[in-house]
Amino acid sequence: MSVQPGGQCPMSYSKIPAGKDLPNDIYVAIEIPANHAPIKYEIDKDSDCLFVDRFMATPMFYPANYGFIPNTLADDGDPLDVLV
């Protein structure tokens, strides 16, 4: 998703539930696709939009999709990380 004119996102990531039937059915937002260019995406907490956070300097690729479970909270204050 990208910011629309007027600074609004087409959808709100904060409104995505953690899943449909927890813990059996969860929703995941992918921030780094498997075997993809090492670009790190993040959800901006103020605008609730997905944006490019950084281009990772390492030539490493993730072997699986890396992301998070919406509306969860880990010890680091961010949503729970996942590899899918």
UniProtKB/TrEMBL annotation:
The protein's Enzyme Commission number: 3.6.1.1
Enzyme's top EC category: hydrolase
Domain of life, per lineage: Bacteria
Keywords: Hydrolase, Magnesium, Metal-binding
Listed GO MF terms: inorganic diphosphate phosphatase activity; magnesium ion binding
GO cellular component term, pick one: cytoplasm
InterPro entries, per database record: Pyrophosphatase, Pyrophosphatase_sf
Gene3D superfamilies the UniProt entry points to: Inorganic pyrophosphatase
Cofactor section: Mg(2+)
One of the protein's GO biological processes: phosphate-containing compound metabolic process
Name used for this protein in its record: inorganic diphosphatase
Species name: Pseudomonas coronafaciens pv. striafaciens
Lineage: Bacteria, Pseudomonadati, Pseudomonadota, Gammaproteobacteria, Pseudomonadales
